[in-house]
Automatic annotation (TrEMBL):
This is DUF1761 domain-containing protein. The chain crosses the membrane at residues 12-35, 55-78, 85-108, 120-140. The keyword Hydrolase does not apply. Keywords: Membrane, Transmembrane, Transmembrane helix. Signal peptide: none annotated.
Amino acid sequence: MDIVSGLQNLNYMAVAVATIVSYVLGFSWYHWALFGEAWANALGLTKEEADSTEGLGGAFAISLVSGLTKTVCIAFLMSATNMSGVLSGAFLGAVIASVFTATSIGYYNGFARTPLKLTVINSAHSVVELALIGAIIGVFA
């Protein structure tokens, strides 16, 4: 399978749904009622500072593009390996996040002396996000 035909054969409805779910997960994950308070405390932010979206337009745009990029990548890998199904997709997403993202966040934050709580919150978000993306792509496969 070449890259161009692989990308042409993706289910872009699945990609759109998974991208939107990824974005909503981020909003929910870092909401004060879920992990937002612990996340803000680890960063030394007050609730007002954490709730302020002033100057974060670029971060929200990058978040959306990031979700789309991760979704297309997982969809492409699943298509290239003929993988389908919720559990297979969720497993693939969780493995990718654990191997690449969580480990990277772990050592970046370790050297930056970032609180362990922040590392765990951000790493767990990545694992859950990619597992959800894989599960959604798997449903549509």
